[in-house]
Write the structure tokens for this entry.
Amino acid sequence: MKSPGRTAAYNTARWIVRTLWRRFGTIELNGLEHLPSAGPCIVVANHQSYLDPLLLQAFAPRLMHAMAKSTQFATPRMARLMSLLYSFPVRRYEPDPVAVRTVLRLLAAGEAVMIYVEGERSWDGRLQPPRRGTIRLLLKAGVPVIPCRIDGTYDAWPRWGRLARGAHVHIAFKPALILPRLDHKPEREAVLESTTGRVMAALSAPGDRWFAG
Amino acid sequence: MAIADVLYACIECGRLEALRPADNGTEICSRCGTRYRRVPYARIQVEPPGKPAEARSAGEWLDMLAAASLEDLDPARAEPVIVRIADRRRPHWTRGHYLGRIERFGPAIAGTLLLERDRLVFETADHHRAEWPLLDLTAVQPSSRTLQLKLRNGPLVSIRFPEGSAVLWEMRVQTALQDLYADLGKGTILEFQPRIVTR
């Protein structure tokens, strides 16, 4: 599969988000050296707000294909918008082999894929338990996993908030986790718990269940 | 979205699903009159009548609710709901690639929802009734301010709670499922999505 490259519409959307956010709030990005400039990788992030995908796509130096819940594609207009932003759907209420194949196909083409490991926005800003299927997918893919901790988007627009407000957002990319590629399910299940611990420890902050200091 | 979506009970009096919209973006407990407002850093300020206001994070308030004895964690009343059912799917393609099938939700149907020991009962105002046995649920997931249920060999059902909390109803349905599975000797549920998995 040929790398799609950024479309003009995507670049325009990035410019709009960057311009609006700079009037609205502030942003700080750290650890960009941990995000490979080329080649396959999976960025796993915590999810605090609707703002997360917008700000990540707008400010990250590299295009990332984001996994998003299928119901966000429910109307043709939203489906077009999500596609414009390089999002692809996953059904969260049943195993979705098409979404897994899409991830593997994008990685085979040298693309970066972004997945929210909690599977949904946090109600209270704290890190939630991960989706075990996501950890299994990381082990199946066997590419560098880049943890990405997002803070401040919850302050700006919590899940229960009616409107967004200005805030300072901090996005930190962490050193890559090198996970083995495990083609067989028993191998993946054997290391599922330990891998979950590694991923969540890398994403956690003080106050989170997995925080190790 | 509202504070009532996350704070499923009044911090002051413990009444469940008590918060209602008030003026200036605040919410108020329908029983004791405690006011709730969003303050900087997404903290929630609670102002009980005649007492000083206190602001904490939603997580801190939720921890307090979890530790408190609340008035009613086993609902006997039917909850007003708005239900949408996704019984069709359409294929989705982007840049020449097939990316799966997307749900198509039908019209919104107003009615009430009652949680019984082994089933959910949805009834419309004109007394059309649908029963969803808990053992037929293959997944339970929150989505924005709705609770979504997947029925075995059936559709995805999306339920919105105009007067209630999707967080509370997720807890209620998950607790009822755990209890039913335990009663039937089917084990402990480890995951509720993408499918219910037991140990």
About this structure: Chain A has a mean pLDDT of 93. The interface with chain B takes residues 1, 4, 69-71, 73-74, 79, 83, 88-96, 98-99, 102, 105, 119-120, 123-126, 131-133, 154-156, 158-162, 165, 167, 207 of chain A (CB under 8 Å).
